[in-house]
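Bench log. Compound arrived from synthesis this morning; before running ITC I wanted a structural hypothesis for how pantoate sits in the protein. Inputs:
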Amino acid sequence: MKTITSINALRKELDVLRSKKKCIGFVPTMGFFHEGHLSLMRRARKENDIVVVSLFVNPTQFAEGEDLDTYPRDMERDAKMADEVGVDYIFAPTSRAMYPDGYGTYVENDTISDLLCGVSRPGHFRGVATVVAKLLNIVEADRAYFGQKDYQQLCVLKLMARDLNMRTKVFMCPIVREKDGLAMSSRNVYLSERERMRALNIHVALKHARTMIQDGERRPREIIAEMKEIIKTSVDKIDYIALLSADTLESVTKLHGKIFIGVAAYMGGTRLIDNTIITVK
Ligand code: PAF
């Protein structure tokens, strides 16, 4: 596995591989890998000749006062883990290379960026779409892989790829959970043992929502009310509990078709998100 920091050097390598008709799979990340990241890399490994993983803590997707400076980083450990799952290239550009002086071009989705996580993280999806568009332009991958945990991000990026006629196909991979059900996240390291235990109720509430639907409940408000009861005493603040159309992220009055059930909540200063998707007949 090679680690490359220069945009031009990566392009040169990948141009040679493309000329040999190699198909390129890409996993964009901000590093501090866990099983969730590794599952994306393994899928990319299975479906492509070459696997590129980017490792870049993107400043433009952090809102004022968020954890950009303290975001966990461990490049050496990440490189070892990526190597073990068969990644060919780690691309780790500097902020200066990605956003040179005078940088002024951004990608903005204005249909689904201002709801759910976009409400409490203004500008977040603009930063995500911008950096992923730049990375896709650099890597020119055939396929790019993202986790379901950041479902709204995935929807924004799918729309971006469609709307801007990008060649790269965007794929969703399932949420990877700890044994006890907690969705894996690089930010879980911020949680104390007690907070981590309390955070489990987010997953409990999502499972409860699925059970209610399986038992015939079709009213989103009733489900949200019961989920709130489960979560409210465990977390410090609920940001949102939402049941929406999984295809459009639009609200529904009666559950039908593919439904996204999402939760965002604060545990101390840590914002946790989790979701599940269910098809309602
Ligand atoms: O999901 C992430 O880790 C980031 O938002 C991404 C897609 C790598 C863009 O910085």
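What the model suggests: DSSP finds nine helices and nine strands in the chain. The mean pLDDT is 98.
ITC booked for Thursday regardless.
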